[in-house]
Amino acid sequence: MSFADQLERLQQFLDADDLHDEALDYLAGHGYLTALCISPVEVPEEEWIAELFAEEPNYQDEAQKADIEGSLRELKAEIARDLSSDEELEPPCDLTLGDEPDLSDLRSWCVGFLEGVFLREEDWFSQDEETVSELLLPIMVGSGLFDDQPEFAEIAQDEDMVEDMMQHIPEILTQLFLLFHAPEDKPKPALLSRH
């Protein structure tokens, strides 16, 4: 089976209605796996798979379980390859929240990414909290999870600024990856300038 076919099967499985309410759908799952690939520490496979589904799905049989978990591993490996190449990693959706942010694909992706960060939150922020916080800001804004906080509510009012932030997400992913995984003798990535 081609990787594209595998991904299609995975997407149908993750987007089905019979998974646990807190399970991640395909786009959130992609964001989640992206965060795991960037993470400064490795998260054990059984832990991240369990967290992704919130509870064990009702697989038809062991073969389906092996197929879905294998596809998740493949997708994670593919994302890791993209991050370590010279190409910017694009989320598999438009980089816009559109007119209804709560229904946007990018919001799902951002929520999933932060779920991946939360698995090892202390490790993400232990080296350089200020830089990591600044780089994560657009993804935090995109997720909508912090809209009840005054500074985020204020940013959300400025649609142009929010849209501009969303366009920078691929660049941010590269910068976060380099921050955690570039050899020590390489210069740290410069922060995005604030517009």
UniProtKB/TrEMBL annotation:
Coiled coil: none annotated. It comes from the Bacteria. InterPro entries: YgfB-like, YgfB-like_sf. Pfam families: UPF0149 (PF03695). Gene3D superfamilies: YgfB uncharacterised protein family UPF0149, PF03695. This is YecA family protein. It comes from Halopseudomonas laoshanensis.
